[in-house]
């Protein structure tokens, strides 16, 4: 039984019950994907071309934009294939690889937000030592550490997927491959694959969120110690963009977690919609937040479009 069915491709799923209008649903998805590509791509161009943005804060922002682009380029091909052309089949090895990148990049994004919190903490807590502490080599080491944590920590639960036998239904519940979706189709002992992700989430997403919260408590304590109200507002204003991105990311994570844990009786479309919100909303909002809230980015956009990128 395993030998007959085990190597068969998996079947991706779009919006159940709405297959007839998938081509219409694909239009907003295409617009959102295009907006994400243009928005994050523009941030990378600005940071690369404008010397005024060659600072640690913007290097971390470039990492965030790159991570968002990576996530979109990982999920976009299968989502649009299902919605536009009803191409549901995906080879097993392609599915496992996609799952690896989706989960790795999610952990990387959480790590980048943590690194950005560290940057804001140093900028406000030790403003005179900021440039001597956050030198380029340290920024590179932090970036490499964030990448290594994301891409190495997810290997243990993904590797077994390659040799598990799959004798049950090969139908997945999304238009992309998620570890928790794939492992349920395995005809094998998946105890490790159930336990490890819970521990990993606690040591990455949850721990990162706690450290970010603690860093902002210390930042707030420092800001309240500043005598001038104007200086207080100026210091806090430098954190608004980052706080907004953190809230967008973790609210979607919490929302998706609650739906999966407590929304077992919720309609399938609610689960699917929430998963798309999780994958699309942060990458869509991050460039908008930084463009609206950061004056240096606004000036850089003006310089770029007026043809004076090196002022």
TrEMBL record:
Origin: domain of life: Eukaryota
Keywords: Cell membrane, G-protein coupled receptor, Membrane, Olfaction, Receptor, Sensory transduction, Transducer, Transmembrane, Transmembrane helix
SUPFAM superfamilies named in the record: Family A G protein-coupled receptor-like (SSF81321)
InterPro entries: GPCR_Rhodpsn, GPCR_Rhodpsn_7TM, Olfact_rcpt, OR51/52/56-like
A single BP term in Gene Ontology: cellular response to lipid
Membrane topology of the entry: Multi-pass membrane protein
Family the entry assigns: Belongs to the G-protein coupled receptor 1 family.
Main function: Putative odorant or sperm cell receptor.
Protein name, UniProt field: Olfactory receptor
Source organism of the structure: Myotis davidii
């Amino acid at each position: 039984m395993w030998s007959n069915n085990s190597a068969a491709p998996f079947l991706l799923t779009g919006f159940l019950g709405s297959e007839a209008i998938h081509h219409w649903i694909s239009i907003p998805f295409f617009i959102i994907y295009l907006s994400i590509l243009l928005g994050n791509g523009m941030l990378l161009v600005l940071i690369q071309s404008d010397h005024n943005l060659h600072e640690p804060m913007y290097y971390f922002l470039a990492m965030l934009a790159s991570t968002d682009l990576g996530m979109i380029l990982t999920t976009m091909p299968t989502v649009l294939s299902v919605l536009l052309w009803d191409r549901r089949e995906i080879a097993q090895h392609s599915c496992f690889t996609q799952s690896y990148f989706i989960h790795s990049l999610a952990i990387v994004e959480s790590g980048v937000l943590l690194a950005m919190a560290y940057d804001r903490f140093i900028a406000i807590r030790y403003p005179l030592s900021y440039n001597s502490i956050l030198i380029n080599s340290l920024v590179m080491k932090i970036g490499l550490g964030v990448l290594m944590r994301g891409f190495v920590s997810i290997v243990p639960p993904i590797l077994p997927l390659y040799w598990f036998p799959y004798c049950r239904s090969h139908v997945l519940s999304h238009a992309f491959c998620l570890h928790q979706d794939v492992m349920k189709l395995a005809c094998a002992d998946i105890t490790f694959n159930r336990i490890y992700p819970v521990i990993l989430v606690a040591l990455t997403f949850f721990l990162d969120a706690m450290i970010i919260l603690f860093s902002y408590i210390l930042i707030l304590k420092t800001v309240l110690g500043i005598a001038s109200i104007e200086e207080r507002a100026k210091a806090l204003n430098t954190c608004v963009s980052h706080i907004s991105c953190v809230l967008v990311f973790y609210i979607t994570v919490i929302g998706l977690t609650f739906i999966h844990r407590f929304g077992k009786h919720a309609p399938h479309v609610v689960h699917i919609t929430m998963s798309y919100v999780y994958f699309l909303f942060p990458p869509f909002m991050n460039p908008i937040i930084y463009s609206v809230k950061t004056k240096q980015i606004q000036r850089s956009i003006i310089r770029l479009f007026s043809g004076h990128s090196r002022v």
